[in-house]
Amino acid sequence: MLRFFGRRVLLVLVTLAVASVLIFAITNVLPGDVGRIILGPFAPQDAVERLNAELGADRPVAVRYAEWLAGVVRGDWGRSYAFDTAVFPLVAERLGRSLLLAGSGLAVLVPLAVAAGVAAARREGGLFDRVLSVVGLAVGALPEFVTGVFLILVFGIWLGWLPIQALPPEGTGPLTVAAHLVLPVGCLVLLLFAYLFRMTRASMIEALASDYTRTAVLKGLPQRTVIRRHVLRNALLPTITVVGAQIGWLVGGLVVVETLFKYPGIGSLIHFAATNKDIPLLVGCSLAITFVFALGNLAADLLYAALNPRVRHGRNAH
Amino acid sequence: MVKRTDGSFPATTLPGLTAAGSTRRQFLAGASSLALGAALGLAGTAAWTLPASAQGTPRRGGSLKIAVPAATSIDPVRLNSSGGIAIVQQVAEYLVYAEPDLTLRPVLATSWEPSEDGKVWTFALRQGVKFHDGRPLTADDVVATFQRLVDPANASPAAGAMPFLKKEGVAKVDDHTVRFTLDRPIGTFPYFTHTYNCVILPADYAGNFAEKPIGTGPFKLVSYRPQEGAKFERNADYWDQPKPYLDRLEIQTFESPQPMVLALQSGDVQVVQQLSYIDAQGIRSDNNITLIQADAADHRQLCMRTDMKPFDDKRVRQAVALCFDRPAMVRGLLGGLADVANDHPIAPIYPEQIELAQRQANVAQARQLLADAGYPQGFPIDLYTHQYLELPQFAALAQQMLAPAGIKVNLKVEPTNLYYNHWTEVSFGLTDWTSRPVAAQILAQSFRGSAEWNAAHWKNEAFDALLARFEAEPDVERRGKLGSEMAAILNDEVPAVIAYFNKNLRAARTNVKGLTGSMSNYLDMTRTWLDA
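Predict the joint structure of the above. Result:
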């Protein structure tokens, strides 16, 4: 297990290194001129050129990468062009916020979708199964800017029950924070429920129909034990992989949800950095998100391995 | 300011504006005069007046949340984003402030006087004004501020707005008098000191506004967070007591307009600093919300490269201008929230009276002109613009309106950053121009032969000579005559089609009083108060 773990951590580091090179290469071909973007269309051209030289944006990408890497090793992630502030504290704060939103979303979504998937699979084709499959799929097909606006209109404006801005006032208690997160979390759950539900349901059905389940039932084990020890353990494996792969997106890709609910997380930050060609900020955000992505996959792999001995023992199992 | 109880609005869809849809257009004309007349109640009036409720006695206290578009840098020297400008304007102040009707209100300057030839302007500064750190405002601060702005090393957009002012031209006369010596006479110089970067900062300002936000303004900046917003508290030592009326202010920045409108509807914010006609549609019928409209000089320039085929021939450019049904565009694109324009940028809001016959759509004449110029079958052309406000729809409309004359427009709608990389290079480009407090500024920046942003690459010596006299002339009436001559040249030469002047919109909950619109979307909160 330790060797497995060590190998995976090493892989995370390699991923980060490769990602940073890629990110730097990509920023080089982003459209737009940094100085022009910062100073706006009304700035004179010589001012734009002066600023570009001052920022060093006119130097070769390899030189800038080397400098950036040296900075990161020393803990200095550079300064954002557009906000004129240090990148690291900004990215760290936004990352924390995004993790809170993604974590809350997963905490609601995973138990809900897995329980519903298990229940639906045990009575395949029943009323519960059919209703949930159709409704879940229909809602999941709606983009978040539709469901989000709908939630805001209903619960925020007509009923007035919930705050529509996800960011609570500073220094409020956890209850207020939770109340502010209800709508965006609801939006996320509506978006992803169908996906996870169907995944769990399908693998449950497959596992229920398998030989080992029949054997377990035939040897007289109580149904609960069969489900817990034999069915779930196998059926959850694909779900875990899917959730692991979604973590990166849940943290870094929620631009629409963050914008709609005015919840400045890392998704809207990286979107801003990309559209404004704020390279130090863009690279910082990308690195942070890549890190979360890699950690999410690592966690999923470890959990997978814990549930599935074949993985952690490698080829020796065969 | 007008409260809209009438939610109806003329049905305005682009397909209704095709050349063939003349009956539909007539219907629209009827509908809009009815609905707009009732809803806006002010078509034709020059300025909005405050509603009766706002003329009550201002009440001290309360806090207000304002939604503004995204902010980038809040360093006054370099900022250019709407959100950043709004934040800085609460903390620091200009020498003068241009009111919605373009009269000048003395702020940090109490009076200003040009020399005989208009080249030297002397400003008397207000006495007893204190910066937020307690130090008094002196001529040294004003001199340092303007020297900083026009110093090429600081790369400020303000340097582009005031090319006639050099660092050496700013001088202190005494502790409360500053003298500006310009390269050439500028008759309306005080308005230029109202450029958004020109807030007065302490002489020792070191470029760190976010960490050390010191101004003389009505509010002190308490905290600022990128992409979130800023919090302010009342400046108890403000020079213009009992203003400001509000105790606290919060400016929230939004990345897109829809959440702003939703936040206003739910009451999470009380003011939306600026919104487009399209975004305002959803709240027109909301009785809790007041829409504030301001005349402006914002406009769109459909520029044609006069140094390249096919637009090197004046007749081709005139033909393009003749294809546009301007009243239909005003209704279709902006629901009537604009004034028809006549291919020159001197908007009706400016004090100069322009006398020039309005160009009317005439496709037959356009076809004749194209045939005379050697394009009897018309020609294909790429039209470049960017994803911003109604520009993509304008471009689509241009495609429809130019088709009957045989001009086959291929649309190139680009992201904003990409478009601004080459907007002065393309042969046919549609660009948004925001208001400037004086007409000379837009004329000089877009149509002077040597101007960097002369996207039409148009050069006309008679025009340049008139422009120099226009800039220098302090007398409004004489400026009107010179302006009319320039407008006539632009209207005849058509380096750019200018079809309409936009109006600015601002929205507030009805308990917000004393809030005015602004041609530049500036945000002055000194006079705003909350009704209990």
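The two ends of chain A are 17 Å apart (CA to CA).
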